[in-house]
């Protein structure tokens, strides 16, 4: 596939659609969580208002250059992920900048945001940020292991590192999905998925009762607005990868919305009723359950 | 009620000694470097707050105010007994989330400081710091009779009587203690004030900074923090 | 356990005042020899089963120039509470024996007494640390000669327009019109 | 597998003066303030902790943020004027203050309380205990990150507050139990409406059992964490559910029955593990006891009768010199009022013995070293401490 200039506005359009979808979907999911607790929940457009409010704040203070760059890196992670992953299979407009080895790049971007956040939060000098960051890094590292193993398993299975090709291989019937052709890899990767969605029981990074919301403790106004944008983009970008790799991708926007929502809800269902693991318990969990399943998945292939 | 002892005079002479960890000292770092530390100067910025203008266009400002009013982030700081009615406020019966109200655990991200009830001098010191760390524009709501004029604790030696001497208050909610319905009504009223563009407490604070500081320092005798906590 | 018997037994070895049997399960007794306090407390705790220190507090008898310290002990098995009262001279500096090694929780009570009554307990952990008050330079506030209303009026500003309706007048007119 | 058992050999010991010599400049340790503005702290207090990595080396409790000088304020009010302010000593369970104060005054002034009033007082105290436990259950779950339990429990608590409102006219501060009796009898049809509330509560509590107490993560976070050696109970003055979780059946309702508890039928709930799990479980089961007690009281109490004794002229009400101590089993442990009178119209001294006074100060400071920083909130909430009764 050759590069064409028209891809840039197309990719931006994709980004715009995903951003708005994310804003509405996260609000909807908050509403679902609230309903479990018996509440009515926030208005569906609340995320837009919060974002606007944060941008409209009049004062902001900085703790240094890295403090600026933290949210920027984080957002880059989210946007980069979306840009290099084909959103809609078979659509010229929304396949973005997918290329031959993009799976590796995507895996890199998954980690990139956390890393950038770590630098920024460390600059803010708040001890809770530092604790949150160290927790976040150790947990992401542990959760990454099953994911990496699962991804290796399927790249061996399909003999390619191109996400578009992987999606192509899963078309046709629902039983062509990796979910059915390689269930162990899917399970291993889902461990990582639940583990990195910042929901209970793996929300040690934010953990309000322990370290008041962790890394973003010092972030406010526009910085926080950037991070909020990323908070709606990044989980969806991540879910897109999972959808492409394990659940057959999407061929149209409605299919995309439904699938993303369904996959996202997996973490929500678990998150709503579970208390929180301690960081070493969650690492233990990944090493004990995620890792063997991942190894098995590779062996199976 | 017992009569007041007219002969009692408050001790205004004694200065509170500077705490040990706040005194200047020299420290040897792990790598052998010797560092002079003056905690009251080194760690803080001494700049005074400044007045932040509204945006130039009234329409933009009105739009912003609408957003501010519909996204009130309360600092989760229960300063007094009124905090017990804040929990029903956020739970199924009253559910203030419907109105865009939610808790933030850190002052940096909060816009609304609710002083929930009486303020002892010790808490006042923390409340001032929390208030100053919030970003403009920020709002203060005084909850309960005790923030208005002392209420039940009008003769207590340890609680302040008027909150607006120390922080710029946008709205008071009276009662001991105010019910969640009263809280909701008060917050709705606050929204109207914000939308009208009258909730300029932070600018008021910056304009009358010296007056507020003098009031605060007359009560807090161990003032070992910068004048403005950035 | 019969409290009369117990007090009699103790009186043979310690100088105790006349006991007050307030309720069948509550007795107050004075200890007149302050130096014997620790011995008596240890005996009560280890031999007589008064293992629970309920509270330790002071009463300011300013007219008599004395501080009363009350050590309230409880024997759960026998359902008996014993209030042991000790009197200190009320002139600065007021000091007394610390019992933090008999009951670790006494440390907190002694910190409070040091701060609120100005009664020092040398050797008690963190007794000189600030406990409740912060930056307090006036006299200890629980002493009787500290007037909280006067202090409050000299420190905090009143909001103009506050009218005090003393319930005394209201009740007088409504409930006891004859006086 | 990894072992995360703490090895404390490399940390300094606490010195004889209770201070830990930690050299912060080495960069090995970090001082952290939990509170007063911290979502994991119950109420307005703070814990100053020194951490090494994720492990807490030392913890100090700081209180006094809620100090209003109650004991001083009471000294300049007449006996009847004290009554409206006593309930404000402790916010989540104010009725114990009213009962203890009223009972102390009645004892020193020699006032007999009508039987009907005794039953209503017991009812109020049990309702207050129910509410307080509801907050504790929500708190324990919330401290471990399961917020939905807190939502349910607060909702049930709201229902109970409605009953309080119906009975006393106020949600939080009821000012209902005053020296001589209670202000009024029960409203018409109260028992039926209370039964509805209790049924709803039981439904929600069954859900809590399913969601929380069978949850693997909750078990993992709480079992074996925050262990209190039962040998520490007496030296540290541990009472109430915290002691019952360690197998000691301390319950003043049984040990020293007051009001009408000797006419009611209930068992003292105990657990043996003495960890966070056991303390949560004791409270959970004690809610059932409370519910059954409320039902018993409503069934057994006399329907007619006076609720208030005629007091002497309260404007010139002088009580002869004396002192007394009244205690009761609150939801956190032994709650007591020590009242000293000197023959004048004002109390000479009132001292409030709140159970949190020992739990949140000496005991918590003893328990914190060696725990994980994540467990501090759960540990505090499991001790069920309310700061206002520490500093008054």
Brief description of this entry?
The complex is a heterotetramer of chains A (301), B (230), C (179) and D (392). Helices cover 31% and strands 13% of the residues of chain B.
Note down, in words, how this protein is organized.
The complex is a heterotetramer of chains A (301), B (230), C (179) and D (392). With 301 residues, chain A is mainly alpha-helical. Chain A has helices at 7-36, 46-56, 65-83, 102-124, 127-158, 163-169, 178-181, 183-196, 221-246, 253-273, 279-300. The model of chain A has no long low-confidence stretch (mean pLDDT 77). Chain B has 8 helices and 7 strands; from the N terminus they run E-E-H-H-E-H-E-E-H-E-H-E-H-H-H. Chain B has a 3-stranded parallel sheet with strand order 5-6-7, with helices on both faces. In chain B, strands 1-2 form a two-stranded antiparallel ribbon. In chain B, strands 3-4 form a two-stranded parallel ribbon. In chain B, 31% of the residues lie in helices and 13% in strands. Chain B starts with 24 loop residues before the first strand and ends in an 11-residue tail after the last helix. Chain C has 179 residues and is an alpha/beta fold. Chain C has a single domain, classed as Beta Polymerase, domain 2. The radius of gyration of chain C is 21 Å and the shape is globular. The mean pLDDT of chain C is 84. Chain D is 43% helix and 12% strand. Chain D has helices at 70-75, 79-86, 95-109, 115-143, 147-168, 190-213, 216-222, 241-244, 252-255, 276-300, 355-367, 375-383, 388-391, and strands spanning 30-34, 46-52, 55-62, 177-178, 181-182, 322-329, 334-341, 347-353. A 3-stranded antiparallel sheet of chain D has the order 1-2-3. In chain D, strand 6 (322-329) and strand 7 (334-341) form a beta hairpin. Chain D is globular, with a radius of gyration of 22 Å. The model of chain D is unreliable at 1-8 (pLDDT under 50). Chains C and D meet through strand 1, strand 3 and helix 5 of C and helix 1, strand 6, strand 7, strand 8 and helix 11 of D.
